Structure formats: structure tokens, C-alpha cells
Amino acid sequence: MNAPGQPGEAIHGAAPACQAVPACQTTHSEPNLDLLAKLKEKNLAAQGLMVLEGRIAIERALDAGIAPRFLVCTEAEEEYWQARARKAAVTPDSAADPDGAAAPREDAAPQVIAPQAAVPSAFPPAFPVRVMSHEALCDLVDFKFHRGAIAVADMPRIVPFEAEAAYAAPREVFLCLWDVTDPSNLGALVRTAAGLGLTGVLLGPGCASPYYRKTIRASMGNVFSIPIRSASLGTLEFLNRNGARILAAALTAKAVPPEELGLHSLGLAPDSFGRPENRRSPIILILGNEGYGLPDEVLDLCTDEVRIPMSRGVDSLNVAVAGGILMYELLSLAYLPSRE
Q1: What residues are paired with 228 via a beta bridge?
Q2: What is the pLDDT of residues 66-116, one digit of tens each?
Q3: What whole-number distance in Å separates Cα of residue 114 and Cα of residue 193?
Q4: At what angle do helices 319-335 and 183-196 cross, to 10 degrees?
Q5: Is there a domain that residue 2 lies in?
Q6: Which residues pair with 174 in a beta bridge?
Q7: What is the mean pLDDT of residues 155-168?
Q8: Are 138 and 213 within one domain?
Q9: Side by side, which strands form the sheet with 245-249?
Q10: Number of folded domains in the chain?
Q11: Pick the residue with more confidence: 228 or 2?
Q12: What separation in angstroms does the CA of 194 have from each of 41, 124, 250, 288?
């Protein structure tokens, strides 16, 4: 069983005590605002819930097909979010018949409609919107909140990585995190991976949840814009057996700078899937705990160990900074024939 906070597992615990909330204008059915009261003291993950703060994070969740349980916004944001709540409920089928819209299938791609597009008021909103003054919203969450809107949604379930999918196209590149416990570091790494165009993020044992409040904020909502899957030693064993290039970020005598990995000439040996010999293998960069790195059982499954050359007596970098540098370098080396 995974430890609390580990990807793919809900964290169980006592519900937080109810808190008084300020009076405000209600425009939809009553949401449970107690969930947001004194927010910094709450662990909503214990209830399988996550908090989305600000337009960017909420929009990225909506684009991923995640509808909040409810949203609270300031008066200045009311028009936008009332319209957006209706648009989030619109699908091609429901557009023809607002009263007979069926619930979307789990495997259906999210239908994203620009907030500026007109939607008839007959469409019921996908989620309730409650409106209050900026001052009342700050009083509710009990800190200075300047993002205009905040929402509560159910945490998505993280499914295991299907390792065979890494061989579906040439040179897929993944970031794998192992025991990265700090939510801010994890969020920053996910944001960088999304920004640089990596295929996906794999979360090994011990990692913070990508759907913690701090993680979502640090990722700028990009936890919803890049595939995130769980991984195990078995995942790495499968990838290793089938010719993947697994690169461990490590401070060991074996570790070499990225340019010495020979990634530009990497080819995939014949594998159990019968892929052509000239097909390039997937690349997985693994980053471990900032304090003690990767465990030996993970290092034993890696094909290479990589480091960032340092000077002036500095022996290491923050894991989010190091990960960003290595992702950029590895992508450059993997996709460019040569730097000479």
C-alpha cells in the first residue's frame, strides 16, 4: 500500500472542522464554503479534493475535462465565470438539445469552448458559481487572495504508466521523479517538463501528490496539461529490458556531463515488439530526493548516470533547477544530430 501523499492513492483522514463563512451573494445552489474557510489550515487531499486558484489553473483543469464541485469568484470576475460555467457544460450533443445532454464518457476528449462564445442561458452550468467581494473572499480563506477566483474539485486518479506506450513513436522523452517529496519542487518540475514538450511525467514511490495546492500553484496548472502516470521498479525493469535509455541524475563517480552520453547517435536494438532496428529508444530522466538522491535499486536499473558540471565548490543544485537544466540539455542532444 502506498504511503499517504503517494501518487495514485487517496489520503484518508479526519474531515476538517467547519468554519464560519462571511455572508455573500448566492447565484447558484449552495456550495460547501466550509471547505475553503481558513484554507491554509486545511488538508483537503484527505477528502480526495484539490484547490484550484486563479484563472490559469482553473482553465487548465477545465481544458482537461475536470469540472469543479464549485467556484467562488469576486464580483469583478462574475460575468466571466458565469459564462464559463455554462460553456463547460456544452458538448456537440447538448448544443442541439440542452435539456437532454448526456454525461460525457470517461474516455471522451474534453470539449473546450472559448469563454467569449455566446451560449444560451438555457444551458445549466457545469458547476455552481458563488460571488462575493474581494474582502469577503480574503476573509473566507484567511489570507490575502488576489487571483479573483478559487475552485474545489475532485482529485484525478493517477493511473499506472503503460510502459509499452513509450515505444509507440520514435524518441519519446519522459521525466521520472522518485521520492520528490516537496510539492513546490514537484510542481516546478512538471511546469518545466510541460513547457519543454516532454511526453509525460512518471511519479515513483514517495512523491508528493501533483494535486496538492502548492504543487498546482508551482506548476501554474500544468499538472493538468501533461500526462502524469505512476511508476514502480517494475516499470523501470520493463523499460530497461526493452532498450530504453534510463538516465539517473546523480553525484557519483560514474556520472558524466550530458554531452558525453552520446544521445544524438542513440539507436534502439531489436526488441520484443519487433520494432525496426533504426527506431530510436525512449529516454527517461530520473530525479531523486534532494537530500539523498536515488536508491541503489533504481540506480541499478539505469543505463547511465548524468551530472551537471559545477564550479567554485558548489556540489549540487536545487532539484527543480537541476531538473530544468538537464531536461533542456537532454532534449537538445536527443533531437539535434550534432552540436559541432
Answers
A1: 201
A2: 999 999 999 999 999 999 999 988 754 444 444 443 343 343 334 444 444
A3: 26
A4: 20
A5: no
A6: 200, 284
A7: 89
A8: no
A9: 228-230, 200-203, 173-177, 283-287, 245-249, 304-306
A10: 2
A11: 228
A12: 30, 33, 23, 19
What does the alpha-carbon distance between residue 294 and residue 58 come to, in Å, rounded to a whole number?
34
Same domain, 256 and 109: no
Q: Calculate ∠ Cα 106-111-116, nearest 5°.
A: 150
The full 3-state SS of 160-224, as one line of letters, equals: ECCHHHHHCCCCCEEEEECCCCCHHHHHHHHHHHHHHCCCEEEECCCCCCCCCHHHHHHCCCHHH
Under DSSP, the state recorded for 152 is: E
Question: Could you tell me which residue, 78 or 171, shows the higher pLDDT?
Answer: 78
Q: CB burial class (10 A; 0-12, 13-18, 19+) of residue 27?
A: middle
- Separation between Cα atoms, residue 203 and residue 180, nearest integer Å: 9
d(CA 243, CA 57) in angstroms, rounded, equals: 37
Residues 221 and 56: beta-carbon distance below 8 Å? yes
To the question of pTM greater than 0.90 for the whole model, the response is no
Whether residue 3 is contained in a domain is answered as: no
Q: What is the pLDDT of residues 48-72, one digit of tens each?
A: 999 999 999 999 999 999 999 999 9
Mean pLDDT of 163-184: 88
**71 and 137 fall within a common domain:** yes
Alpha-carbon radius of gyration of the chain: 23
